[in-house]
Amino acid sequence: MQIGRWGAVVALTLSGMLLWQTQPQHANVVAAAVRGAEHSARNWPAYNGGVNGDHYSPLTQINRSNVHQLKVAWTFDTHEKGGLQTNPLVIGGVLYGYTPTQKVIALDAATGELIWTFDPGKPGTQPTRGFSYWTDGKASILFAGALTNLYALDPATGRPILTFGDKGKIDLRRGLTDGDYSGIYLAPTTPGVIFKDMIIVGFRAPEAEPALHGDIRAFDVHTGALRWTFHTIPHPGEYGYETWPKDAWKITGAANNWAGMSLDEKRGIVYAPTGSAVTDFYGDDRAGDDLFADTLLALDANTGKRIWHFQDVHHDIWDRDFPSPPALVTVHREGKAIDAVAQTTKQGFVFLFDRTNGKPLFPIEEKAFSASNVPGETTSPTQPVPQMPLPYARQLLTADMLTTRTPEAHAWAEEQFKTFRSEGQFIPFSVDKQTVVFPGYDGGAEWGGPAVDPRSGVIYINANDVAWTGGLTANEAGGGEGANLYQSQCSMCHGADRKGSPPAFPSLIDVDKRLSDASITDLIHHGKQRMPSFPGVTGERLDAILAFLRAGPGAMNTAQSDRAQRASAGASARTANAVTSSKSEMGTSGAPVVEARYHFTGYRKFLDPDGYPAIVPPWGTLNAIDLNTGKYLWKIPLGEYPELAAKGMKGTGSENYGGPVVTAGGIVIVSATIYDRKIRAFDSRTGKLLWESELPYAGNATPATYMIDGKQYVVIAASGARNPNGPQGAAYVAFALP
């Protein structure tokens, strides 16, 4: 354990469950530090730098002329494996971060020395991207999400504030269903925003039923009491109710704000982008446009009332939900300044609106697209497409874009491509035929979000440019409860054939030879990284899915064990009528929901036999767009594969997760890339690479920058989870000038 200027570390325990470590003799010193100048330029006081979502820092000590001199100032090793997607807060010289198991840590931001640790008592492995921080200048509260809970912590000590909610926490599932929520998954992945004495929150939800209602809610920062709720799936009499089937609000879930929000503090408007409604890829039970799924909402932050909205995808069946908080920016048109909100998308679009009324600042065309031929599916006849700026990711995969990395890879890609349907955006999936999704399910833009320079109105977007495919297949009756569970809950990620799309979605073939039943059960109940948890899969249902994974498709009629036979027999009547009968699970209000006739065949990344994207580069880019005009200033590949670069194939770009930061020093700082494990700084005017440094693990997070005692730092959370073939571990790495 590290000992530094904060003194010795002691451990305290509350009720045998809540653990923290701190130095009580320095509590007053730390408390004074965190109360001082929380919103000054020296700090990084909110997720992504500020509640306006612009990822901007006014610091100039590190600039174009000297950024090449950056050196590692300190490293904090979490001594854990897993993923880190955290954009840490830095306030009053203290850095607040997570570990991969969702412990909250406070570090001396100048040295990386540990000040305190808060352990919620049960390890979690879901992404945790940041914190919310409230202060009135006298008292302060650090809000941290872990498991299904929102915790209120004392920033000076890490101890829960016992007057908040249930002894320092609230279970965010409460109030989102009329029934039992204990078996339903929810994760506070992205932090809420603070407005006055409220914290406004969303959450991550499952991609299939059962899923909780995606309500956006505000809670009192002192007590945890609910202050207001906005129903993203409207109730009778509410705006948008007619865009769903009657009573859909009783049985349909998600349409949740998982990506985070931005706030116009002066106007009191919170901007909340929402996700898709379940299930993601087949919507026979939600005919209509499905407001407010896939919608940018402008809400009155005082009351939660809708001011305006824009739906990005009508009746989404492609998982094209908004991936990140929007960025607030002021643009100039015909000599007038217009306060605007810019929203990036997985499709590669940027939508720009007047912040006050939602009026588009670039033309948007409701473009006609072909209808679905899948029985039961009714797609929207049109989808909104902005005319400017041009997309920052490619939109249509054609045969001349297939990989030329090797003749063998090209020939393989040609044969595969002949079996696909590839017609561009918003093409409905077919049954038993793969349709190209390009850019893929991971964007275009992803959860890291863009950076905006408020002085120039230029937006900086890092994007993925890799093709995936998707399709539908009919649900099969008679396979037993294990097969039924796998179809409805697992096949979306791991595929109907259980082959997955490694490394993001591992193959489950022979998984019983790699993992014990206990290990598989732990993954099912607690999830890991991109995999949600399934706490409701217990007893005979758990036995059935374990037996299915051991036996494989089609084998559930073979006796695996007495308990598996009982589970299968008990479900046989339900499974035999799976096409038309009620599901075993209930909707979010306790009402039965109809079993879908088709399910998604699984996320399939279009990779060649060697594991590289089966299309020509760039596979990832960094883009600079002038939002005043809609024109590109520059566009460059971001990232590379070291082994390909060593063979002369450089500048390919690669998948990237985590956003950029832009500073008044004229630099754009971004890590994000998976395979080269680098953090980079570019000239914000030209895109010229000014500096790069290799990290111990991939920096799949957004950096933060801050100043202490006259020295500016840049810090990044790094981890190995995205690349299982690379180094494994997790650390925070800070850089500064010599």
Notable traits:
738 residues, five-stranded mixed sheet, six-stranded antiparallel sheet, 12% helix, alpha+beta
Question: Can you characterise this structure?
Answer:
With 738 residues, the chain is an alpha+beta fold. It has a domain of 134 residues: Cytochrome Bc1 Complex, Chain D, domain 2 (Orthogonal Bundle), CATH 1.10.760. It contains nine helices and 43 strands. The strands form twelve sheets. It has a six-stranded antiparallel beta sheet, with helices on one face. Strands 3-37-38-39-40 form a five-stranded mixed beta sheet, with no helix packed on it. Strands 4-43-42-41 form a four-stranded antiparallel beta sheet, with no helix packed on it. A hairpin with a 2-residue loop joins strand 5 and strand 6. Helix 4 crosses helix 7 and helix 7 crosses helix 8. It is globular. The N terminus is likely disordered.
Give a short synopsis of this structure.
The protein has 738 residues and is of the alpha+beta class. It has a domain at 472-605: Cytochrome Bc1 Complex, Chain D, domain 2 (Orthogonal Bundle). 12% of the residues lie in helices and 29% in strands.
Shape: globular
Can you tell me the CATH superfamily of the domain at 472-605?
Answer: Cytochrome c-like domain
How is the biggest beta sheet arranged? 6 strands, antiparallel
By DSSP, the count of extended strands is 43
Low-pLDDT ranges: 1-20, 22-39, 554-586, 589-594
Q: If classified by CATH, what would the architecture of the domain at 472-605 be?
A: Orthogonal Bundle
Q: Within the largest sheet, what's the order of strands?
A: 1-2-8-7-6-5
Question: Do you know the CATH topology of the domain at 472-605?
Answer: Cytochrome Bc1 Complex, Chain D, domain 2
Over all CA atoms, what is the radius of gyration?
Answer: 25 Å
CATH class annotation of the domain at 472-605: Mainly Alpha
Percent in strands: 25-35%
Portion in helices: 10-25%
- From the N-terminal CA to the C-terminal CA, the straight-line distance is 27 Å
Mean pLDDT score: 88
Q: What is the number of helical segments per DSSP (H or I, 4+ residues)?
A: 9
Structural class by secondary-structure content: alpha+beta
